[in-house]
Structures are given as structure tokens and as C-alpha cells.
Amino acid sequence: MDAYNEKKRSILIELDQNTPLKSIITNSGENGAKLEKMIRDFYEEVYGEGSTILKAAEDGLRVDHAQHLAIFKGVLPIHENIEGMVRGIIADAKKNNPNVDLSQVENVDLLEERMYRTVAYLTLSNQLIKLFSDYNQARREAKGEESAASKFIGNDINEVIGDLNMVRANSRITDTRFMGVQDKVFELVEFMTGRRDLPTGKGFGDVIRETQDSVGGLIREVEPAFRDAYVPLLNELIEQAKANNNKIGGGQEAAPAANENKAA
Fold first, then answer.
1. How many angstroms separate the Cα of 135 from the Cα of each of 139, 149, 227, 241?
2. Is residue 58 part of a domain?
């Protein structure tokens, strides 16, 4: 419950106080206002009093794991919007400050995107695999025929495929390692939807395991790569902020001394 309460509190802090996210929203005009509404609406759906996704109860936090698709529907567009605004800020900074080296910032931004899209592929492909299993179970129970249950699950499968397409469509990552994993995920989609024949001698269990191993292997690479680049940049920004505060403080302290000299 402590983690739940802290997360619930911290999201609103990001929106209501002087944070980098608040600055991005404030300086992005109409697009910023739309983003803030998206975040607040999503917050209300997940953490609000009427939420059916997360619910604080006397016996602890109750989580409805059947609503993963609602989480994806909220999180993915929010992230894509924030990332688009960050790219815009970096582009403006390069244009307005051509002599400032922003390569470190650009590298961290790219590594964050690489990590995010890999995590998205892991999460969405696992959801797709579960739904595919549920779909086939529903068809077996209906003796191979379509049923209300299988149609419902089929709609969910299409929604997850749409989410996967969104992740791919907005990607700037083109390195061979990442692209190979991405291709593996979409091969699995094509196997499941009948757009691609299974490899000779392999079943769905085989291609599912191969996909999970492929995405999982990249997951173990992208997080430390991002951390190794992000932490030094963050520390540098913190030191810069401290230095700026010291300069401001020094200027404020100097003023009374000057006035005293004049009075003397």
C-alpha cells in the first residue's frame, strides 16, 4: 500500500508543482493542455475513487488484472506525446543554441526510447500470447466454431496488435539488434493471425519461446545501457542547478552590503 500511495501522490506532484513535466506542458500551448488532460483522465481511471483497476481495501490493494488493455490504452499515447515534446525541445535548443553540445542529451533520449520500446514489446507480446491461448481455448470449447467468447477475445487481440503497431510506427530506433527483436515480435503476430506459415518442424510453442527469449535478452541490455548514460547526465544537471542557486544566493547577499556602504 505504501508504494501505491506514493505513486498516487507523485503523479499529481509532477503536474501541479514546478517539475520538468509541468514546464513541458506549460510551454507546449494547446498540445500541452491536451497532454495534461490525458494524464489527469488516466490518473482518475487508475487511481480515482471510482477506479475498478486499482482499489484500496482494508485487506490491501486489489488489482484487476483483466484490465491490462485499459492501462496500455492510457500509457502508450501519453508516452508518445511526451517523447514528441521532448524531441521538439531538443530541436529548438539546437536551433537557438548552435554552439552548445547537446549530443549527451540526445544520446540519453535515444537510449530511453530504446528501453521504453523494448519494455513495451515485452509487455504487449506477453499479453498477446495470453490472449492467443485464451482464444484457442474458447474455440476448443466451442468445438472449433466461433463463439461470443472467442469473438470478444479476438477483439482484444486486435487491440493489442494495434498497440504494437503504434510502438513500431513511432520508433526512431534502427540499430540491427533492436530491429531483429522487433521483427521477431511481428513475425509472431503474423504466425498468430495466419499471415505467415510456421517454420517447418516448429509449433506455436517453439516460436513463442523464441520470441520471449529474444525480447528478454534485449531487456537485459537496454536498462543498464540507459542507466549508464542517464545517471552521469542527471548528476551533472544537479551540480549545475546547485551552482546556479549559489550564484543567485550570492547576488542576494551582496545587495545589503552595498546599501550599508552607501548609508555609511
1. 6, 8, 39, 54
2. yes
